[in-house]
Amino acid sequence: MTNVCTAQLFAARTVNKTAFFGQNVRLTCNSSSDRPVVWWFKDQLGTEETEVVVNGKVVDGNVDRMTLVGHDLVIHNAFSNDTGMYTCVENYGFGEHHKIFLRVSGD
Fold it and tell me: Is the distance from CB of 78 to CB of 63 less than 8 angstroms?
């Protein structure tokens, strides 16, 4: 008999968060793991999902505006283009994932 390892993706409910133009915003990934979150993705209102954090490192183009603090993503000086659905994924996509819809207003 062959042992088969099946991976499950556990989804938490979507959390809604509102920020104002120019604010620093902390998106919390409620991870049960002590490993770093592998990825943060962003889907900007129907556009293709893009990687924001890969293997625990902020992707080029976001380095000046975003930092990773533990499992959490911090967006500095938020503006309207930061509005969208953010998803944190741990364990190379085979573990828990958490979704946060961020709306930035006031710019």
Answer: no
For 21-68, write each residue's pLDDT tens digit. Answer: 999 999 988 766 666 556 888 886 666 778 888 777 888 778 889 988
- Domain at 10-105: CATH code: 2.60.40.10
Q: What are the residue ranges spanned by the domains of the chain?
A: 10-105
* Max CA distance (Å), the chain: 61
- pTM of the complete model: 0.77
Q: In terms of DSSP H, where are the helices of the chain?
A: none
Could you tell me what percentage of the chain is helix, strand and coil, using 3-state DSSP and rounding each to the nearest 5?
A: 5, 45, 50
